[in-house]
Amino acid sequence: MKKKLSIIVVVLLLLCGGYYFGLGFLPRTDVVVVDFEVSEQQDQITIYTSIASSAGYTRSVKNVSDDPEKMELKFYSAFGGINGSIGAKDEFDLPLSPECKEIYVLLYDDYRLLIAKNPITGEWEMV
User: Fold this and answer.
1) Contacts of 2 (CB under 8 A, 6+ apart)
2) Which of 5, 6, 86, 99 could cross-link with 68 by S-S, CB 3.0 to 4.6 Å?
3) 3/77 Cα distance (integer angstroms)
4) Cα separation of 104 and 100, whole Å?
5) For 65-91, what is the mean pLDDT?
6) In the predicted structure, residue 21 carries a pLDDT above the cut 80
7) Which among 62, 56, 49, 61 has a CA at the least distance from the CA of 79?
8) Exposed, middle or buried: residue 110 (CB in 10 Å: 0-12, 13-18, 19+)?
9) Which pTM was predicted?
């Protein structure tokens, strides 16, 4: 009887742990870029974000583009379940290559252009 109970407890702990930490590996598709700053050397960009939905936080971002002229950003959920905040951040520092001209963010089902370099002035602008 104790062996069956122990197995049930272990299985339940594994399921709860999988839920608790597993959601942190899922991409967030409702991230909104609130603001950004480009360093003076034009080699780094700081992106400030928010969440469009009422639950959840972001913890990390990854550039999934192979093209040096554009960045395609995919944000990931924080750990701790649906509204977990373990590792939550809303400010992300990313390296910026000199060739980069556009920054896209995964929104719902597609990458959308949100930040671009003005071809005339050379300044970065929200689109």
Assistant:
1) none
2) 99
3) 36
4) 11
5) 90
6) no
7) 56
8) exposed
9) 0.84
